[in-house]
């Protein structure tokens, strides 16, 4: 029982640190791109899942990784989310494309969509729908 509480405390601490590291603001749409998607309960897309935390961040393995702050958003009652990223770099110059990864966090489980998410200013990148059966426990098996 004590081990379970320690794991839960660790998980909560990790989620709080992730939330603190995110920038929720929306930048000027002329130099920003939008990432959107849906989360459903199962592969049949029966019902949207509300409250899934979404973190949009740089793809460190990409040729042109996103250089801005992590962005956070949460799915609404229909399971939909949308978040914006500013396409500039640390020197204030505009970057015309950037590669991202998107992390999903829900009830102690997570899923990461990485690879082939390239955005440009004014673009909207809509991810394929994700269902909660794709999520794995954070920190290993249950």
Walkthrough of the structure:
The chain has one helix spanning 2-20; strands spanning 22-23, 32-40, 53-58, 70-74, 80-86, 98-106, 109-119, 124-126, 130-131, 136-137. It has one helix and ten strands. It is globular and about 40 Å long. The protein has a six-stranded mixed beta sheet. Strands 2, 5, 8 and 9 form a four-stranded mixed beta sheet that branches. It has a single domain, classed as Immunoglobulins (Immunoglobulin-like, Sandwich). Mean pLDDT is 79; it is low at 3-20 and 24-29.
Which terms summarize this structure?
single chain; mainly beta; six-stranded mixed β-sheet; disordered N terminus
Task: Please write out the topology.
Layout: H1 2-20, E1 22-23, E2 32-40, E3 53-58, E4 70-74, E5 80-86, E6 98-106, E7 109-119, E8 124-126, E9 130-131, E10 136-137
Parallel strand pairs: 1-4, 2-8, 2-9
Antiparallel strand pairs: 2-5, 3-4, 3-6, 6-7, 7-10
Summarize model confidence as the mean pLDDT. 79
Strand order of the largest sheet: 1-4-3-6-7-10
The counted number of beta strands is 10
The helical percent reads 10-25%
Please report the number of helical segments.
Answer: 1
Number of domains: 1
**Are there runs of 5+ residues with pLDDT below 50, and where?**
3-20, 24-29
- CATH hierarchy, class: Mainly Beta
Please give the largest β-sheet. 6 strands, mixed
Tell me the CATH topology: Immunoglobulin-like
Strand and helix order: HEEEEEEEEEE
Rg measurement, Å: 16 Å
Oligomer: single chain
Q: What characteristic shape results from the CA principal axes?
A: globular
The CATH H-level homologous superfamily? Immunoglobulins
Which structural class fits the helix and strand makeup? mainly beta
Distance between the termini: 13 Å
Strand % is 35-45%
Tell me which CATH architecture applies here: Sandwich
């Amino acid at each position: 029982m004590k081990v379970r509480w320690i794991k839960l405390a660790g998980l909560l601490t990790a989620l709080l640190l992730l939330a603190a590291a995110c920038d929720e603001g929306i930048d000027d749409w002329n130099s920003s791109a939008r990432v959107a998607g849906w989360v459903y309960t199962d592969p049949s897309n029966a019902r949207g899942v509300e409250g899934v935390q979404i973190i949009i961040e740089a793809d460190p393995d990409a040729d042109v990784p996103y250089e801005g702050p992590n962005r956070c958003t949460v799915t609404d009652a229909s399971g939909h989310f949308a978040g914006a990223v500013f396409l500039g770099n640390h020197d204030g110059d505009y970057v015309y494309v950037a590669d991202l990864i998107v992390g999903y966090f829900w009830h102690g489980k997570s899923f990461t969509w990485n690879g082939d998410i390239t955005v440009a200013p004014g673009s909207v990148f809509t991810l394929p729908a994700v269902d909660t059966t794709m999520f794995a426990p954070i920190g290993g098996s249950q």
